[in-house]
Structures are given as C-alpha cells and as structure tokens.
C-alpha cells in the first residue's frame, strides 16, 4: 500500500459529519423514548383526557366554520371575533383599545373577556385556518388541559395514587360546571393554570416554613437550630406565581378571582387548625406573596388601570347578582348535560352555560361520607376544604336564597359583598365552580387512602366514588349548522369597497342579541371595523357598564325594516341623518348580503337613503 494513499478522514470528511449527526439523532431518539417510557402512565392519562374532550366537542369538528354550539351561538360568534382581533398581534396591529368594533369609540379589550393570551398564542392557527377552528380547538383543549393539570397536581404534589388522581382530575376538567361553561365561555374553562397557581402557593408556604423548633433549642441547648426559610425556593416560587397570575389575567380574570377567594378561605382555615405553622411561616410567607404581587404588578399595573379607568373602561359589573344566583335545589340536581340529567332541571338556572352547581345528590352524599372517613389522617387539609366548600357554596346562592325557583326572602351571604368594588361584579352562581376541585380533592384523599389499605375499603370506596360520578358523566355538547358567510366576505371582495382597517357597515348592524355580522369581521381576520356590536362598554346610566351601545337613528331604522319587512317613508331628513351617521361611524361603505332578513325591503330603503347600489359577488354595496 502506498504511503501517499489518503486516510479515511481525508478521503471522506462529509461522511464523518454524517456519522456524527446520525449518532446524535440516535442519542436524541433514545432519550425521547426513555422519557416516554418513564412518563407513559401520565401520557396515557393525557391521551384519554384528550380523546374525551374531542368526543364532547366533536359536533364542531366536521366543519368549524359551518357548525355552532347550539345552546349559545351568540357567545361563540363573540369569541371568534375576540380570537380574530387577538391574532392581529402577530401582524403588529394590536391595542388594548381596538377600533375594529363599536366604531368610532372602540372597545376596551381588558374590560371584556377577550382571552388575549390564548388568542395571541393561537394566532398562527387563526390566521391560517380561521377563528372557528381556533375556537373549536380551545373548547376541547381547555377541558383536557384542566383535567390533566389537576391530575398532575394530585399525583405529583399530593402523592396520590394514579387512579385516585385521574378520577379527581377528570371531575375538575369534565364536571358539570366545566361542561356547561364550554358553551362558548372560553375564559371560564381555561383553568389549567389554576393547579399551577395552587402548587406555587403551597411551594412558597413550604419554603417559608423554617420547621418546628426542637424543645431542647427553646431551653438553650447547643442542638442545631432549624435551617430557616429556603430563600432560593421562596424567590423562585414568588417569580413563578407572578408569571402564572399574570398569564391568567390575560386569559380569564374571573377564574383567577374565584381561585384567589378559595385559596384565601382555605389558608385562613388551615392557619386556624395549625397555629404553630402559622406562627412559624406566616410573616415570611406574606413577604413572599408581596414579592409575587409586586412582580405581577410590574406587568399588570397598566393593563388593570386601562381596564377600569382607561378609554371605554368600566369599573363595575353589569349583571344582576339577584338574577345570576344559584338555586339551592340545583346542588342536588343532575345537570341536563349529564347522562342522568333531564331537560326539566334547566329551569333551576339562567341558561345552559351556567349549570355550575349541578353536582347531584349521589356525589354530595359520597363526598360527605369520604370527608368523614379521611378526617382523622388529614384533619387540617380536610377542614380547609370543607370550610372553603361551605363558603363558596353559600356565596353561590346570591343575595337572596332561591329554592325550587321560589325566592325565600332569606338573605344569602353574598349580600355582604354588595357594594364592594370589582367583587360585586362577580356572578354569584359561578362561585359554585370552585367546588369541583374542592370535592375532587376530598375524593382523591379518600381514594388514595382506600387504595393504600388492604381491607374492604380498598374495593368499596372506589366503587362508591365511581357510582357517584357516573350520573354526572357528560354528554357531547349539542351543535347545529349555521348559515354560510357571504362570498363577498370569504372571497375577499370586501376590499373593493373598504380599505383594510376602515369601517364596513353591515346591514342590519350587529347587536348583543344578534351579533352575526361580527362573523364577517372574524372571517376577514378583523381586517375592517364595524359600528355598534356585542361587547361591554360604559353605556349604562351614568357611564356604568352595559352590553352594547346606543343605536344611531339610521341603524335603528334599518333594524326595524329587518325585523318587520315594512318599507318606511324616507324623506330629506332621513337622508341627511343617514349621511351624518355614516360620517359618525367613519364608514367606507354599507353592505347588504343576499341572505339578510327582508333583503329586498332593506335594499329599497338603502337606495332611498344612499342612492343606487353596486353589485359585488353576493352583496349590494353603497360607498358613502
């Protein structure tokens, strides 16, 4: 062999790199496979939750744009518009005061349940596939994500057996209140950060506890003193808590409020039961919470000010606590959206999106028995759960107790909150949502104790819990077809009469009860603005919160034509008013789709107001 013959590296350096890449890929694949094997049980729970969530929302999936949640289509149209506006952050076109609705005043996004964080995270999906796809995806993901998050908390933090943790997580994610809120209330079902917040609070408390002082230390012995609070874990917990709270504010403030009230009640109850822990850890724990609050306010200070005192902001609630109160008898009634429920029980609440307290008698009885059974071993935690359940359940009854649809004239504890800023804007019946994780915690404690025992309880307790959960097992959410959007919108023809960012006036204009033209804007990725619409703004008496805004005279006239089909007499005054209203809205054009109610009467009226129309695709337009 000649000494001039090339060595292997000199002959094929590319081959060496390919071999190294192949080795790296193999090592990465081995690590991934090992991680999957290590967490295969957790992944299986997550997969089951995902399948169940997909099954419950499967009615939307054949055609998200053409299907709607039959029990609350108005709110679905609203949230699809929210998601479309949120997605514009990816295009660099986003502000907390949007001009894409209620032109020219705009809408304060912080004062509305706009799920900003979810909308921004899902912006690529919205821009590529449309807001209805994002809505359907989030409806399922919120259910599955909440169930999995609670499962992990029960299994990892509470060290509960997997079966116990899985059943507890399932109740948290798929309980009656969560299923009913899935009828278009994305901000209420996105609860997967709540277990994270609970875990961080507990972690902060543990880091703040220096541990009990041995008796010898109190006598002046030379024995080692407690190590003291873990400052590093405290700071990391405070920073994590600030991050989770900040994210939850931009997802759903009401969920955060309910979680905070529940945790406060539990913390006070636990401190009363364990005064030694309170003396040791409370000062440092309070300092850690203050650090978390300070960090969160660095980000949230301006948005919260904007929500309550900024343009179009509102500082009060607009819903009547007396109307949105839970019926006492609803607690032992099964939800109509559960397998054992009946349609007649719907009379005990305000609507299909508010079955928050329908736990059913079997679950209440089994929970009570399990609570008594686990009292001895976990007295402090059980006491905190019981007190929190009683407080939150009592608050759900509102300012006056209602029983079987009849007002009893008995004052409810919620009356104590009347007049408190921000707090009195909460819907009383939604306090009932807090009982899902509380009841789940008590059941997990009982199941875990049973599964660790060797007697009859090992079989009887799981059977009793499963039997109590079966009646409230959810059924798929009812869905229905909805009208197709006009080609004028889906084909992008709207750009021929309104510049991007300009104002398009659909006829009839959107209202809180009939927000359907807002689907036009959602389909166009909120590329144009709309007058009026479905939102919360300061249009109540004295600038208080109200749903929607005042109708301009021309809008009211067109709404009347759309409702009755009559053609009103149009004179010079109506034409001048129509011009003034178009100028007020900053409108570029008025559009009437072929499928509008009483389209011929509306077209004739609009031609008298604005002159001859121009035909574009399947719509008539008037440039104003």
UniProtKB/TrEMBL annotation:
Boundaries of every DUF6311 domain copy: 96-416
Reply yes or no: does the keyword Phosphoprotein apply: no
Q: Which InterPro entries match?
A: DUF6311
Q: Could you tell me which Pfam families the record lists for this protein?
A: DUF6311
Question: What sections of the sequence does the record tag as coiled-coil?
Answer: none
- Which keywords does this chain's UniProt record carry? Membrane, Transmembrane, Transmembrane helix
**Spans traversing the lipid bilayer:** 109-129, 135-154, 163-179, 257-273, 285-305, 357-376, 381-405, 425-447, 459-477
Report what the protein is called.
Answer: DUF6311 domain-containing protein
Which organism's genome codes for this protein?
Micromonospora cremea
């Amino acid at each position: 062999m000649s000494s001039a013959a090339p060595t292997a590296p000199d002959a094929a350096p590319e081959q060496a790199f390919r071999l190294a890449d192949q080795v790296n890929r193999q090592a990465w694949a081995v690590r991934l496979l090992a991680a999957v094997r290590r967490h295969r049980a957790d992944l299986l729970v997550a997969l089951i939750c995902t399948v169940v969530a997909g099954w419950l929302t499967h009615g939307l999936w054949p055609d998200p744009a053409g299907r709607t949640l039959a029990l609350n289509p108005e709110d679905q149209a609203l949230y699809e518009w929210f998601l479309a506006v949120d997605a514009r952050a990816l295009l660099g076109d986003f502000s907390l005061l949007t001009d894409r609705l209620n032109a020219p005043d705009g809408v304060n996004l912080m004062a509305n349940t706009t799920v900003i964080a979810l909308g921004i995270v899902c912006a690529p999906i919205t821009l590529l596939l449309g807001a209805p796809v994002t809505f359907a995806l989030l409806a399922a993901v919120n259910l599955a994500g909440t169930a999995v998050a609670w499962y992990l908390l029960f299994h990892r933090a509470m060290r509960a057996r997997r079966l116990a943790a899985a059943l507890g997580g399932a109740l948290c994610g798929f309980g009656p209140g969560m299923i009913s809120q899935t009828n278009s209330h994305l901000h209420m079902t996105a609860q997967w950060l709540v277990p994270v917040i609970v875990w961080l609070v507990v972690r902060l408390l543990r880091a703040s506890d220096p541990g009990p002082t041995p008796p010898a230390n109190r006598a002046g012995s030379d024995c080692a003193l407690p190590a003291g609070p873990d400052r590093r874990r405290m700071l990391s917990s405070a920073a994590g808590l600030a991050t989770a709270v900040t994210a939850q504010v931009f997802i759903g403030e009401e969920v955060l409020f309910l979680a905070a009230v529940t945790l406060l009640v539990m913390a006070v109850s636990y401190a009363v039961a364990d005064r030694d822990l309170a003396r040791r850890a409370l000062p440092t724990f309070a300092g850690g919470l203050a650090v978390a609050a300070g960090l969160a306010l660095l980000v949230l200070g301006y948005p919260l000010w904007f929500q309550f005192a900024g343009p179009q902001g509102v500082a009060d609630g607009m819903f009547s606590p007396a109307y949105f109160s839970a019926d006492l008898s609803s607690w032992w009634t099964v939800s109509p959206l559960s397998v054992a429920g009946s349609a007649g029980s719907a009379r005990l609440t305000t609507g299909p999106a508010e079955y928050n307290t329908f736990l059913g008698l079997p679950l209440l009885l089994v929970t009570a028995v399990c609570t008594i059974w686990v009292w001895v071993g976990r007295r402090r935690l059980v006491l905190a759960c019981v007190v929190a359940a009683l407080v939150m359940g009592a608050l759900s009854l509102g300012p006056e107790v209602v029983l079987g649809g009849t007002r009893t004239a008995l004052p409810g504890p919620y009356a104590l909150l009347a007049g408190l800023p921000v707090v009195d804007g909460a819907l009383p019946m939604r306090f009932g949502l807090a009982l899902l994780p509380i009841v789940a915690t008590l059941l997990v404690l009982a199941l875990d104790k049973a599964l660790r025992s060797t007697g009859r309880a090992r079989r009887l307790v799981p059977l009793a819990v499963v039997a109590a959960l079966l009646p409230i097992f959810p059924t798929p959410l009812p869905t229905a077809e909805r009208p197709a959007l006009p080609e004028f919108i889906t084909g992008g023809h709207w750009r021929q009469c309104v510049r991007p960012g300009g104002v398009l006036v659909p006829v009839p204009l959107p209202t809180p009860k009939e927000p359907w033209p807002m689907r036009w804007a959602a389909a166009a990725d909120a590329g144009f603005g709309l007058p009026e619409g479905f939102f919360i703004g300061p249009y109540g008496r004295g600038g208080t919160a109200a749903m929607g805004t005042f109708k301009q005279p021309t809008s009211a006239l067109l709404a009347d034509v759309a409702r009755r089909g009559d053609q009103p007499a149009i004179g010079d005054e109506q034409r001048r008013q129509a011009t003034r209203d178009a100028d007020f809205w900053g409108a570029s054009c008025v559009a009437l789709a072929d499928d509008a109610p009483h389209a011929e009467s509306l077209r004739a009226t609009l031609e008298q107001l604005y002159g001859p129309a121009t035909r574009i695709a399947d719509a008539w337009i008037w440039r104003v």
